[in-house]
Design a protein that fits this description.
34% of the residues lie in helices and 18% in strands. The protein has 180 residues and is an alpha/beta fold. Strands 1-6-5-4-2-3 form a 6-stranded mixed β-sheet, with helices on both faces. The structure holds zinc ion (ZN).
């Protein structure tokens, strides 16, 4: 079953997101809607730090938190700030294909060697560090992870509309993820 909704025209955006900042994000990015002017942010985007991703959106339209794997567990103060002080009522959580946090364990040796060679760490410290923190960031499946993050954040912020999305680094399009 295809878990992704291709957004190639406005009608593809499911109705509950149309005319909201979630729908506007998809219109600006995928459909090249002309950019409106914003004096304050309407949206919070949570997305991976991966350098291949770029959002085609107007200035001032969105707060953006970038974190490995779009894992926002360690950024909740920033989320709370955007909601409380920034007045944000909509969050787009965007995972992506070919994410380095998927199967992170396969990069263990590279990670440790890189900390030694590039950062000047000693090998024991680098290994201990990976062992301690990798389980907090490893993702099994990028789409399933975004769905679970969406559920978790909806419980924490029940009045906020949160949409799970997927960025394809091959064609730079954003898809809505189908929910049960
Ligand atoms: Zn990633």
């Amino acid at each position: 079953m295809n878990q992704l909704i291709d957004i190639s025209k406005r009608e593809d955006i499911i109705s509950k997101y149309q005319d909201s900042p979630i729908g506007l994000l998809l219109e600006y990015h995928n459909l090249e809607k002309p950019k409106d002017e914003y004096s304050e942010a309407k949206l919070l985007v949570g997305m991976c730090m991966d350098s291949r991703k770029y959002l085609n959106i107007p200035d001032n339209f969105s707060y953006i938190i970038r974190s490995a794997g779009a894992n926002l567990k360690y950024n909740e103060f920033q989320i709370s700030y955007a909601i409380s002080v920034g007045g944000i009522q909509h969050i787009a959580l965007i995972g992506h294909n070919d994410c380095g946090m998927v199967n992170l364990n396969s990069r263990k040796d590279q990670f440790i060697k890189g900390l030694i060679d590039n950062a000047g760490w000693d090998s024991n410290a680098a290994e201990d560090y990976f062992t301690q923190f990798a389980p907090q960031f490893e993702i099994e499946n990028a789409i399933d992870f975004i769905l679970s993050e969406t559920k978790r954040l909806r419980l924490k912020y029940p009045k906020v509309c949160i949409a799970p999305m997927h960025y394809n680094v091959g064609n730079n399009q954003i898809y809505l993820i189908v929910e049960d």
